[in-house]
Amino acid sequence: MDQLIPSLATLVVSFSDCFHPQVFQTFQSLVAGWIVCLGPRTISEVWQATGWAAKRHHDTAYAVFESAAWEWDDLGIVLATLILSHLVPGGVVWIVVDDTLCHKRGAKVAFGGIFLDAVLSTKGHKTLRFGVNWVVLGIAVPIPFRPDRYYCLPVLWRAYRKKGQAGYQSRPHAAAAMARLLAETTPDRTLWLVGDSAYVNAATLQSRPKNLQLIGPLHWKAALYERPEPPREGQPGRPRKKGQRLPAPKAMIEDVATYPAEVQTVVFPQTTRELRLQVIRDVLWYRGCKTDPVVVLLVRDPLGQWRDEALVATDPTVSAEFILQGYCRRWSVELAFFDSKQYLGLNDPRVWSERSVERAHPMAWFVGTLTILWYAIDGHAGAHVHRDRNWYAHKVTPTFTDMLGALRLQMWQYEVFGPSGTESPSPETIETLLHKMAAVA
Asked: Is 137 helix (H, G, I), strand (E, B) or coil?
């Protein structure tokens, strides 16, 4: 199947200016093949899923990833524009960053190395795997059909290069570069970047665009300071950059006399909790933000079920609830990683050259983001896959698999029954469909 249904083609045509016309035609076919492919999403399997394998050599597909002139960043900015215009037309834009490991094999795989596999590791046992480490930035959006969670839609990504490799850039610096790129292309919107402790440091905090703010964890031993007093008239020397040293967050959370605590009811997407909150505003975290003031939020669960948290935000005026609810969006990127590996073949392409690795694997994120965007705009109104699973009587829908299944079903209905949905399928179409469903490898 090489044709996209009209509702999806309307979105994909927005990327036509990023390609040569002939390359864009092949890219569209690869997107369709990636969606309907039933087996591992190697390039050759995806090419077979397009239906072009008998007419054109599979080198055509490999050439799109290896030698054609296009860049993911260009597509990512267009994709982000579509997301903002359709799903977040106004207000704050939440972006999430994290890294994940794409499993690979082969001594000559570009950017390959031994990395910690966070999925297979536990607190007491660290598991290392060979693969390519990716830093991914996505937009966390609410979907009207799932008010209980946020969806992370990846739009930009970077393959991490280890020290000594050409183009080396630390993960936080790669994340900062992507966040700045997105902020500079949307100057009229305020972006809030959310990350874990690996991405809350000087690399992401300093030299930010004015419309880019950040929320993340603060180390319990972080060095905090008061803002310095203005210099006295005639005082010799340069003005002070830091005021008096403050206690570390670990001491602050226990000192409720100096730093008063207030129990507030905080509403999360799936629950409501009473939490003890301490808000310390207009302090300096010099190592991270230099002389820009920040707000520190210390969180403790009176029931003792949740661990203590120390969070920092770069805008000292925001509320505690805003910080907590914003930080909770971070988990959505982990679900995006899971979906891309389990259902869209992030690990599957068997490519090894630099350009092929940089381009082929992120197709999983690109197709995943397109699927959710399509479903939120038009797909929810069409046909859905029905399966007899009575043991899932309380399943919350739609899930990502429901969205991807609906897209596949509607694409096959369009292929088999035509644009009107009432045409009689030809024997050749039925034969092709049966062979695609029966093929093992």
From this structure: strand
